[in-house]
Amino acid sequence: MEKFDFIAIGGGSAGIAAANRAGSFGKKVLLIEGNEIGGTCVNVGCVPKKIMWSAASMAQDFNLAADYGFNVQKPQLEFAKLVANRSAYIDRLHGSYFRNLDKNHVQVIKGYAKFVDNRTVEVNGSQYESDHILIAVGGTPDIPDISGAEYGIESNQFFNELNELPTSVAIIGNGYVGTELAGTLNALGSKVHMYAKYDALLPKFDELISTNVTESYVKKGIDISFKSEIAEIKKTSDGKLEVVANDGTIIVDRVIWAVGRHPVTDKINISATDVVLNDDGTIMVDDYQNTSVAGVYATGDVIGKMDLTPVAIAASRRLMERVFNNKPTEHLDYQLVPSVVFSHPVAGTIGLTEAEAILEYGEDNLKIYRSTFTPMRYSLGDVKETENLKLITFGENERIIGLHGVGEGMDEMLQGFAVAIKMGATKKDFDDTVAIHPTSAEEFVTMT
Ligand SMILES: Cc1cc2nc3c(=O)[nH]c(=O)nc-3n(C[C@H](O)[C@H](O)[C@H](O)COP(=O)(O)OP(=O)(O)OC[C@H]3O[C@@H](n4cnc5c(N)ncnc54)[C@H](O)[C@@H]3O)c2cc1C
Ligand SMILES: NC(=O)c1ccc[n+]([C@@H]2O[C@H](COP(=O)([O-])OP(=O)(O)OC[C@H]3O[C@@H](n4cnc5c(N)ncnc54)[C@H](O)[C@@H]3O)[C@@H](O)[C@H]2O)c1
Question: Residue ranges of the FAD/NAD(P)-binding domain (predicted)?
């Protein structure tokens, strides 16, 4: 049986980052991936999603052209061409991932791995051994157990199979995926009906984000059923889909499930190991990504902590530094992680929501700053978008413990503010920074 210094199961964001880092230390590394290299993010997540989001943003910008004096008709979208160009780009990314793995002398096997015991995995009938094994198998979309659920598609199928822009679509789910796909499809020209479990989209976010994204979607013509329950999906005689819900029935071309994800730990024969799972099937880890078995680790979506690519990458790299590069305390701090929802308008967030801050620090110890305005880009005509920003500060020195925003540029402006907040910035630090004019970002350093 061949022995490796390190084996990573799963060639997504988490597994690739770990394998490359271990390889860069001269370790003998095996990476096992059952599907396309790059995992969810590259193939059916962040990357194709952002391409679609960019196309949708362009479509929206055409609405502004007349206000700026351009005498142009709104161009037609060739959806199949967009999909083909997106696929070609992803193919190029695959190539660059393989080149990087090769540069770090990582051996890659295509196949689905299963544990044989705490130190051994089997793939394609061969067994491989290591004292250091990373479980980085990620997750897959949920599909509810209701009649006709199979007529709907989930996000993997949306990116792998959809070659035509649906005329009408029902999107079930109001989290990241549902909200992002709804905004994009609406801007590209589909008639969108969303089904939300609660009374606003993005219910886990600060109320500024959930309220403004919800209101903006309604204003843009997206129908939203709140507190919805889907009873069944039926196929009509002309091939359309009938969504039967607690508030009535609609008929659409496509149904998209966006109701959450679950880890794929049920397929790796985890019972052959002493690794302990949480109740929801995610892998139980400590602050250092250790599972309950010494030498077996888990990072990325499979731990169910924060399903974001940069989190998966950061945790994996730090783990490799700790295990193979003599940095015994290295680990990821999961506090103050910035994240963006690529909705239309885009939303960005870091730190505590107002509700969380009140719970943790008490209302009297907080000072909250808000700002709503129309960015200059939307000042010439009838097409209007607003920018809504919020700072949550704590204590006498007004340390910033939460920053949230909805509106143009929020995706790009958040990263720099995140650095400052991670360093412990106070409101005074923001006030002491001279604004950049005219931008939306300047509002964060001029709020009173
Ligand atoms: C639609 C969508 C949009 C997203 N957009 C963003 C975004 O904009 N920004 C962001 O930060 N995050 C985004 N995410 C989340 C991000 O994609 C994940 O957090 C990230 O991919 C997690 O990486 P991972 O390596 O843990 O898991 P994955 O990327 O899922 O990788 C796991 C890999 O393991 C493989 N695998 C599974 N079982 C086995 C086995 N037994 N043997 C071998 N291989 C196996 C799988 O095939 C897969 O390739 C998005 C997710 C979705 C679904
Ligand atoms: N921009 C990004 O960074 C980005 C984008 C997409 C996904 N992600 C990551 O992937 C994870 C998974 O995203 P997701 O959207 O699949 O899950 P999610 O947990 O964010 O959202 C699922 C939503 O569906 C709702 N829901 C569940 N059952 C429902 C039902 N029967 N009817 C209506 N609504 C229902 C839930 O209330 C929840 O709000 C996210 O938590 C995020 O970490 C990140």
Answer: 5-314
